[in-house]
């Protein structure tokens, strides 16, 4: 798989403070890449370097294998964390203006804007001034302007902040759609809610350093513990629990049940296979649930950051 973007050993200092410390990332073509980390980790600093708004003290950035140059700015659609539209300008006028700055003809810009304004059901905003819009509304306009010229790389800095859950879902679906159409997407977030469904790849940044990265499935595989959620239907819950405990490592389960009398998490040793456990359980009770516990991004985020900060 080729990388659309590669950052090699980027370091950025502000005076004596190091905001980004030797961070490298590789963003595969066609991926949705989540740049995750708590507030102040250095995510925006990295994004600003990629967008040539600021320059690294050390390190290099490559777009499609080429060292980053001013001409690459047009290849990247960038939604900054500090949203900046001209407040007293009208929505449509401003969108047309910004689209033409990105190289679209007026006719083309008009056509594409019509498509997006219809899609987001905001055509009636066309003649409103930006200052008349709520923060979330203005952000929708800015999202449109970011993607309108169909750049190969899209970078959204905290795209969901300022959106209610419904609009956050709209944006999330659009991001997935843009990937379907061939774009590569990087987005940053300090909140893990949408990460699960969106990202193929993640990098976790904490206190200016990258502490974890990879394909989301590989990261999850590395963090899973061979634990299974088990729900059983039985008249002899206490007796069966004792027996299971004598054979396996058991911990309390936190899933909700409707019918199960006995619910527990069972962690297998290296020598046990899920089939052994299933075979054993089926001789004991009705099995209503048998699921491997896969750690969520939020859990991995909290675990790695807590360990790192300890
Ligand atoms: P994040 O986006 O992960 O929340 P930032 O990249 O915005 O983090 O900031 C990382 C750190 O660098 C923060 O401590 C921030 O205060 C500092 N920082 C960012 N930009 C500047 C700047 N222009 N001057 C001084 N410090 C800065
Ligand atoms: Mg930021």
From TrEMBL:
Residues annotated as domain ABC transporter: 5-232
Keyword Membrane among record annotations: no
Alphabetical list of CDD domains matching this protein: ABC_putative_ATPase
Keyword Oxidoreductase found: no
InterPro entries, per database record: AAA+_ATPase (IPR003593), ABC_transporter-like_ATP-bd (IPR003439), ABC_transporter-like_CS (IPR017871), ABC_transporter_ATP-binding (IPR050763), DrrA1/2-like_C (IPR025302), P-loop_NTPase (IPR027417)
Pfam families: ABC_tran, DrrA1-3_C
Sorted UniProt keywords: ATP-binding, Nodulation, Nucleotide-binding, Ribonucleoprotein, Ribosomal protein, Transport
GO molecular function list: ATP binding
GO cellular component: ribosome
SUPFAM superfamilies: P-loop containing nucleoside triphosphate hydrolases
Gene3D superfamilies in the record: P-loop containing nucleotide triphosphate hydrolases
Family designation: Belongs to the ABC transporter superfamily.
PANTHER family named among the record's database cross-references: ABC TRANSPORTER ATP-BINDING PROTEIN, ABC TRANSPORTER ATP-BINDING PROTEIN NATA
Listed name of the protein: ABC transporter ATP-binding protein
Upper lineage: Bacteria, Pseudomonadati, Bacteroidota, Flavobacteriia, Flavobacteriales
């Amino acid at each position: 798989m080729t990388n659309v973007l590669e950052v090699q050993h980027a370091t950025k200092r502000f005076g004596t403070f190091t905001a980004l410390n030797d961070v490298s990332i590789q963003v595969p073509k066609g991926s949705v890449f989540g740049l995750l980390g708590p507030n102040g980790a250095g995510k925006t600093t990295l994004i600003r370097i990629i967008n040539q708004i600021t320059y690294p003290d050390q390190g290099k950035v490559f777009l499609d294998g080429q060292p980053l140059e001013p001409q690459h700015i047009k290849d990247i659609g960038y939604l900054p964390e500090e949203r900046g539209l001209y407040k007293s300008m009208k929505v449509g006028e401003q969108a047309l203006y910004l689209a033409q700055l990105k190289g679209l003809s007026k006719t083309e810009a008009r056509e594409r804007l019509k498509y997006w304004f219809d899609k987001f059901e905001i055509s009636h905003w066309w003649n409103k001034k930006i200052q008349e819009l709520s923060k979330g509304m203005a952000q929708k306009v800015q999202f449109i302007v970011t993607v309108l010229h169909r750049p190969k790389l899209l970078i959204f800095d905290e795209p969901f902040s300022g959106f209610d859950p419904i609009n956050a879902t709209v944006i999330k679906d659009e991001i997935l759609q843009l990937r379907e159409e061939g774009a590569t997407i990087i987005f940053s977030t300090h909140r893990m809610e949408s990460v699960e469904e969106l990202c193929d790849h993640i990098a976790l940044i904490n206190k200016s350093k990258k502490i974890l990265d990879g394909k989301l499935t590989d990261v999850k595989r590395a963090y899973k513990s061979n634990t299974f959620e088990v729900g059983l239907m039985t008249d002899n819950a206490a007796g069966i629990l004792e027996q299971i405990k004598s054979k396996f490592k058991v911990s309390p389960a936190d899933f909700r049940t409707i019918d199960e009398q006995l619910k527990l998490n069972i962690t297998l040793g290296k020598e046990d296979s899920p089939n052994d456990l299933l075979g054993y359980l089926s001789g004991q009770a009705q099995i209503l649930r048998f699921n491997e516990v896969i750690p969520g991004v939020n859990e991995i985020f909290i675990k790695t950051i807590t360990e790192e900060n300890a």
